[in-house]
Amino acid sequence: xxxxxxxxxxxxxxxxxxxxxxxxxxxxxxxxxxxxxxxxxxxxxxxxxxxxxxxxxxxxxxxxxxxxxxxxxxxxxxxxxxxxxxxxxxxxxxxxxxxxxxxxxxxxxxxxxxxxxxxxxxxxxxxxxxxxxxxxxxxxxxxxxxxxxxxxxxxxxxxxxxxxxxxxxxxxxxxxxxxxxxxxxxxxxxxxxxxxxxxxxxxxxxxxxxxxxxxxxxxxxxxxxxxxxxxxxxxxxxxxxxxxxxxxxxxxxxxxxxxxxxxxxxxxxxxxxxxxxxxxxxxxxxxxxxxxxxxxxxxxxxxxxxxxxxxxxxxxxxxxxxxxxxxxxxxxxxxxxxxxxxxxxxxxxxxxxxxxxxxxxxxxxxxxxxxxxxxxxxxxxxxxxxxxxxxxxxxxxxxxxxxxxxxxxxxxxxxxxxxxxxxxxxxxxxxxxxxxxx
Length: 438
Hints:
13 helices, GMP Synthetase, Chain A, domain 3, globular, alpha/beta, 2 domains
């Protein structure tokens, strides 16, 4: 069994819920006493310390106010201590790790972790990597420029905690990374889904078949691609390896992940209370219905996040995983983000559905861009997609084919432009797919 912590990962559901409520209560009390932001937030909601001490049920949880990224940003802007502001819940000298959000949805949040927080984070990474079969005899290549973003730093230390050998790709070029993966006989690779496909295209130009490398596992994050079946299949076929997805944010890292069974995303229930709520009413939705994710981390003390609205949309399935974990499973991964869902001609539009269409056409190399404009109160959607070099002579035919696929996946009529390979910009971090110019 690929279980890192058997006690927490296989705890009976009833015991797990009681454990979560105890941890939730402890974190609320801690934040009230130590975080200026939460002290004010709870007080303004009419909550006193005794109310937090009496948290015993999920109904009590619903009485705790929800926080948003906008509120977190306001609690930092111009506030001391710099740069964490009123979110900081420890003396600043206890902060040993600095990271920040990518800023793709607004002002970046600055995040500080204590060393204990960082140990907690690396242990979560060890949990998910171990669940996928990573072991001490593996050699993991991380194809990512770490910089100030949290994701792959944690992956590095989590793999080391298991005992695996880690090779940081750093800021080296794609061709050099491919040579290192091949020459060093790496057995696992960590990167974004779009970069995994980009390496496939570059490897072909180099005359390298990635299916013949020692790589058997790819750990993808940062984008929804690894949970989109057509994207996942394309990566797996090109690499001859299993592809695993997980989701998280700087404020709530690794709150869900895919184990070795690849049956959807396990909710990381030992480390988070994850609520699935109606996006409009912010009340719990029944199992099987899509809702927005609101999370509370249990162990982060530098900057707690309690009932934090991630804006991710997921659906919980009643299916149980053969892996033996008792944690809930999200069907099909993250369906989208509320801040990325756009109304186009009265229809909810998600970049994820465009990616499905693009990946259903094997002649396209997987790179695409969406541009939404408005003319005379009419929304226009233009999808630009790249074609493999061998198929550039049938671009008109592929444009018609993609237009039909987009009609099926988005229910909208979209304009399509097929571009030569190498036209669109490449991204090692989150690919910026949507440009809404309305």
